[in-house]
Write a structure and sequence with these properties.
Residues 315-351 form the CBM1 domain. The protein is mostly beta strands. The chain is built from one helix and 18 strands. A hairpin with a 4-residue loop joins strand 11 (181-188) and strand 12 (193-200).
Length: 351
């Protein structure tokens, strides 16, 4: 009996020991989502930049509650429900989107780091399976989750949740309701690789995909915690809710416990009942160029030592891609027949 107790404690310690949080987005310091309104370009406070959303009040797009978090996530006081509704169009675009971006000067784009979050959906206001959704993505889309029908793919709908690198599916699973998917992107910005860790419920994270080569491009202010939905003619909007928990970035050894660094799981680890879909049965990944989103590099008013980079030579941006803006270092020429349209000082887009 003592042996079993000791073994359990050892296993718990091994699953909890981990690295150091360098950015914490777990909403623990928020009274409500209205706290997101304290951030602005002139008052860059709090853990998140909040500017990619529709025209309604913040509560139309982001809401917080203890009932929205993964019950096994002991490190979070509450989770977030991020919503797309019929007003969730930003800056006149035809893509619905609600996204939060880390507000930090931490080196979240240097060396090897782990981007953690948990994601869940319900049957009520479920994400449409007939449209492509880009979830927890970077500006260059070098890695992201996707759900729904991929733009340009055959068929009408797709029920998978996918992890993609450079637009190519590396892992997928049926996205069932009320199942928490715990994720960590293992990103090595020095080696230009990205790996994938995953579990469900309260089970510890395990590596599902070993690091693969990727164009790990990030200025440290372009990871989007939320969702961008690509438009599709003939399919009307419906409200969609995405539940988030345990959002943080760490360096050092990965935290495999869903509870968070230094904490014991609330529930005993349970094996996942969700089975990844073999690659032979997956729907083809579209070769259509993915729409990108806006970013905002760190303001010169907050950092006088911002890294300097040059625009890639000879490159062109595709339709919907960003093509200019303050501190933007990507492709500034649009592929024919598209032109670079000014949206605001921080963002222009190929249309």
């Amino acid at each position: 009996m003592k042996f079993h107790i000791l073994s359990g404690l050892v296993a718990q310690v091994l699953s909890v020991s981990a690295g150091t949080i360098i950015w914490d987005g777990r909403f623990n310091d928020f009274t409500s989502s209205a706290d997101l309104n304290k951030w602005s370009w002139g008052n860059q406070v709090g853990p998140y930049q909040y500017y990619i959303h529709g025209s309604s009040a913040v509560s139309a797009y982001v809401n917080l509650s203890p009932s929205y978090k993964n019950p096994a996530d002991a490190g979070s006081k509450q989770g977030a429900k991020i919503t797309l509704d019929n007003t969730a169009y930003w800056n006149g675009q035809n893509m619905r989107r609600t996204e939060l971006i880390p507000q930090t000067t931490a080196a979240i784009n240097k060396g090897k780091v782990y981007y953690h979050f948990s994601l869940m959906r319900k049957d009520v206001n479920a994400p449409a399976t007939t449209r492509e959704h880009q979830i927890a993505f970077f500006e260059s889309h070098f890695t992201e989750l996707k759900s729904g029908w991929l733009s340009g793919a055959p068929g009408i709908s797709d029920t998978l949740l996918r992890w993609c690198v450079g637009g190519q599916t590396k892992w997928s699973v049926e996205w069932e309701a009320d199942v928490w998917h715990n994720v960590a992107y293992e990103i090595d910005f020095t080696a230009n690789t990205v790996g994938f860790w995953h579990s469900t419920g309260s089970a510890p994270l395990t590596r599902k995909v070993a690091p693969v080569s990727a164009s790990t491009s990030s200025n440290g202010a372009d990871w989007h915690v939320g969702v961008l939905e690509l438009p599709r003619s003939g399919y009307p909007d419906s409200d969609e809710d995405y539940y988030w928990s345990g959002v943080y970035i760490e360096t050092g050894d990965i935290t495999t416990s869903v509870a968070g660094p230094g904490l014991a799981p609330v529930d005993p680890p349970a094996s996942s009942s969700v089975v990844p879909v073999p690659s032979s049965t997956r729907a083809p990944v579209s070769s259509t160029t993915l729409a990108t989103s806006t970013t905002k590099a760190q303001s010169s008013t907050t950092s006088s030592a911002a890294p300097v980079s040059t625009t890639p030579s000879g490159c062109t941006a595709s339709q919907w891609s960003q093509c200019d803006g303050n501190n933007f270092t990507g492709c500034k020429s649009c592929a024919a027949p598209y032109t670079c349209k000014y949206i605001n000082d921080w963002y222009s887009q190929c249309v």
